[in-house]
Structure formats: C-alpha cells, structure tokens
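Workshop exercise sheet. Pairs work together: one partner reads the sequence aloud, the other fills in the structure field after running the prediction. Swap roles for the next sheet.
Pair: D.N. / O.F.
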Amino acid sequence: FAYQASVDSGPSIPFEALPASVQAELTDKLDRGAQSLAIGDWDGASRYFMESWELHPRNPDARAGLAQIVDKLAERIAGAGSRRELELLQRFSDAYAEHPYFADNRRFMDLQRDLAEQLR
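Structure field:
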C-alpha cells in the first residue's frame, strides 16, 4: 500500500477522452505557460499551468510546468537580495499554496517553510 500511495498518479481521464474544446484550451494554456517561462515570466507561467491543471487534473505537462515554477521559486529565494524581495516571494508562495498541486507538493511546502524562517 505504501508503494501504491507513493506512485504519482496521472489524470483520471486521458487527454484523448477530453472534449475537443477542452483539449484545445488545455494545449493553448500549456503553450502560453511555456512561452511565459521562456521569457522569464514565471509568475505568469504559473497561472497558465495552474489553469491547465484545473482543466485536466494531474496532467503530466501541467505537472512538469508547475514543477518548473517550484524550481524558479527556489532559485529566487536562494538569490533574494533583500527582505523586501523575500516578502514579495512569500506573497507569491502564499497565493500558490491554495492550489491543489502546490498544497500537495512536499518540495514547495519545504520552500514555503524555509521562506517563513528567513523572514523571522
């Protein structure tokens, strides 16, 4: 049972079984998220990837995009040069924490805890 619980489950509905309109919207949001990341707009990208996750929960491409957001957040926290920047990152982090992907992501939760400790 422990092994099964640790396995990362995929979407309950295959992409191909989604209505064509949802497939098109999902593909568009994933593309926009990737484009946003490519230009360094990781917060904008996060919104597209979170919307993708909501359209198709546990979608592997949305999951990969959201994992990149966690990576970007970790980089920004590590490179923060001021308390003000850390406070801004905490606001982003607090907003993300309400999303199911981030709420269940151990690495994100560890980052959020580390961030809070740095701001004490």
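Discussion prompt: The chain has a mean pLDDT of 91. What would you look at next?
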